[in-house]
Amino acid sequence: MDNKKNPQSNIQVVKPNGIIILNYKSLIVFAVFAALTIIEYKYNGSYFDEVLGIVSILVVAYKWNKLYYHDFRALFLLFITMGLGLFSNLYYNLHWSWFSVAVDILTQLKLIFCFMAVRYFLSEREKQIVIDYISPFARIYFIFAFVLAIYTQIFDTGMNEEIRYGLKTFRFIFQFSHQYTTISFFLIGSIISATNINSKKKNFYIFIGTVSILFALKSPALIYTITYIFLFYYFKKYERLNYKIIVPLILALLAASTYQIQTYLLNEEAARRIFFEYAFKTANHYFPLGSGFATYGSAEAAKHYSILYVKYKFYTHWGMAEGNNGQFLYDTYWPMVIGQFGWIGTVLFGYSYINIFKSVQRSKADYAKKAYIYAMFIQYMVHALGASILSSSTGLIGFMALSLYTFPDPTKEQIRWNTRVHLDLRD
To answer: What is the pLDDT of the chain when averaged over all its residues?
Structure first.
């Protein structure tokens, strides 16, 4: 393929004989997002994200020498964490089977590898083509969502779950609220990043999209909306965050999360509170490496009812028993990280996500997209305190979207890792 560089746009320009290949790659990624969206609507998850995880590992392995520094460091820390988890499995032998361990490892790897695969599989121009494919569907989606979100407050549409703050929570056409918010976060990003819509129309669709998301009235929707609006106007005037804006933002997010904090974290009988409490006990008892894969908080630990759950008498708590009465055993993430990987692994795993954020933060972005990046990342990190969002298909969609909507900026310290003499783990 005959390529040339355009110095003004700093993106690859492809001559006519390469257009089919460019469109082909863009259509593959578009089809993947479409499939993930349909699966969320119809099936509430499937094994498709595990298949994507395996394919993504192969893509990243092929592009290994192209990784930017923070992306490489994120994977480096992730592999150390996985190694520590395997050592715990060998030493303590608390897992059900090595197959369960392998499945759990893939579950922990898939999100970050899918993020990386989208980042390096597509060029900047190919990403923009995918975005411009998605944005027309996003506009239609939010027109219907906006109208029905308001209509649902007055009439019975069957699109609500409960009453919060005196309003009906809205989930649109989806079975669960987290599916609605995840797809909405993904689609509104395409509008923010689109080049096939003028600024006036873009602001209109961002407005109705943000209002539609807000009507979900769940913690992820509230955190995203508050953070996005807050930072949208802040980044219009200022380039960087400082403590004067971070403190009031944190206070606003805490106020928005009062319901969740009181219901799930302060309630001593709530499954999420119990998972946190025993995550600390597990990390301390199996200090410093944790209990290992498929033993605490993971889907495999729930599937085979971990011996730790028997030891902790989880079966005495509602929704935490074995079998059909264990629906809350699947609903955790950071407690899983703390319990299975211990204190060292938790720090390494958390720092891996920090590097992912640094990677997207250093991308080319106007104030609207910058606010979107921060809002998306913050709501997922907070959501993971009480849900298995980062090991599920919904989290996968969100981080693949973050990757799709961010274009690496070489002027912002995006140095290829293999150009450095050594791996410096300092900031």
So the answer is: 85
Q: How far is the C-alpha of 188 from the C-alpha of 153, rounded, in Å? A: 22
Give per-residue pLDDT as tens, 130-187: 999 999 999 999 999 999 999 999 999 999 888 888 899 999 999 989 899 999 999 9
**Stretch 86-96: mean pLDDT:** 92
pLDDT digits (tens, 9 = 90+) for 302-355: 988 999 999 999 988 888 888 767 778 887 899 999 999 999 999 999 999 999
**Neighbour count for residue 168 (Cβ, 10 Å):** 19
What distance in Å separates the CA atoms of residue 21 and residue 288, rounded to the nearest whole number? 49
SS3 sequence, the chain? CCEEEECCCCEEEECHHHHHHHHHHHHHHHHHHHHHHHHHHHCCCCCHHHHHHHHHHHHHHHCHHHCEHHHHHHHHHHHHHHHHHHHHHHHHCCCCCHHHHHHHHHHHHHHHHHHHHHHHHCCHHHHHHHHHHHHHHHHHHHHHHHHHHHHHHHCCCCCEEEEECCEEEECCCCCCHHHHHHHHHHHHHHHHHCCCCCHHHHHHHHHHHHHHHHCCCCHHHHHHHHHHHHHHHHHHHCCCCCHHHHHHHHHHHHHHCHHHHHHHHCCCCCHHHHHHHHHHHHHHHCCCCCCCCCCCCCHHHHHCCCHHHHHCCHHHCCCCCCHHHCHHHHCCCHHHHHHHHHHHHHHHHHHHHHHHHHHHHCEECCHHHHHHHHHHHHHHHHHCCCCCHHHCHHHHHHHHHHHHCCEECCCCCCCEHHHCCCCCCCC
Within 10 angstroms of residue 48's Cβ, the number of other Cβ atoms is 16
Are 188 and 403 a contacting pair, CB within 8 Å?
Answer: no
- Name 5's bridge partners: 12
Question: Whole-angstrom Cα distance, residue 126 to residue 314?
Answer: 49
Find all residues with CB under 8 Å of 367, minimum gap 6, and list them: 232, 235, 236
Please state, in angstroms and as integers, the Cα–Cα distance from residue 76 to each residue in 80, 177, 335, 356, following that order. Answer: 6, 34, 22, 12
Q: Closest Cα to residue 89, out of 295, 391, 309?
A: 295
Q: What b/e sequence results for 131-153 when a residue is b if at least 16 CB atoms lie within 10 Å of its CB, and e otherwise?
A: bbbbbeebbebbeebbebbeebe
Report which of 157, 22, 119, 161 is spatially closest to residue 409, judged by C-alpha positions.
Answer: 119
